[in-house]
Amino acid sequence: ELENLQSEIVRNRLLGKQLEAQILDLRQSRASVGKAAQLAFETALLELKTAIDSWKNGYLLKAPVSGVMALPDSRRNGQVLAAGEVILSLVPENDHDARPYCRAWIPAADIAKLKTGMEARIRLEAYPWQQYGELEARITKLAEVAENGVFEARLSLPNGLATTNGKDLEFHHELQGTVRITTEKRSLLKRLLTNLKWE
Questions:
Q1: What are the tens digits of pLDDT across the range 115-124?
Q2: Of 32, 97, 121, 194, which sees the most CB atoms within 10 A?
Q3: Kindly report the CA angle at 83 between 81 and 88, in degrees rounded to 5?
Q4: d(CA 61, CA 90)
Q5: Burial of residue 104 (number of CB atoms within 10 Å: 0-12, 13-18, 19+)
Q6: Residue in 104, 102, 69 with CA at minimum distance from that of residue 86
Q7: Average pLDDT of the chain?
């Protein structure tokens, strides 16, 4: 009976060693499967990111600020657009905090007379100047290159939308108007003498 017990112990030890070997094989197999699955996941993720970037480059319009898109009423589905044509305007979200400014287009023949810091007056078409007054402005930037024969000038509004008649105008995007830029300050006498004609 002692021999039977000893052979049972040997058999159990062998079985234990076999089970340990199987456990080790299973762990290695699981690690291999895990690495393969991880590699497959990373490859699929990279392909997805590449596809998303490709889609963004082809179809996504990106703005430098967040805001609300304003489309012109004249746009129609299927309308053909010309290169460089404005397709929408972006109204920034924090517009109420931003200071309004104006853009003016100066003919190339007149650009040499202008420089930054010059004062100007703006008459808006939506607000007749006789009734509402003019906006005081100052040239803050002049484009270095003409586009279609005109230079863009940017004008700040030191008094905001308060006019020379003391009225506060309501803000609207893309208002049209006329800019009168003061290129030379002259006294009333000089102005009168300039307008006199000698015969």
A1: 899 999 999 9
A2: 121
A3: 60
A4: 11
A5: buried
A6: 69
A7: 82
Place of tokens 């517009």: 95
Q: Give the residue from 117, 156, 106 showing the smallest Cα distance to 136.
A: 156
Domain boundary assignment for the chain: 1-67, 96-186
Q: Does domain 96-186 have CATH number 2.40.30.170?
A: yes
Order of strands, edge to edge, in the sheet holding 119-124? 101-107, 150-156, 135-142, 119-124, 177-181
* Distance, CA of 6 to CA of 12 (rounded, Å): 10
Amino acid at 31: A
Quote the pLDDT of residue 100. 79
- Report which residue type is found at 162: A
User: 10 Å Cβ neighbour count for 151?
Assistant: 18
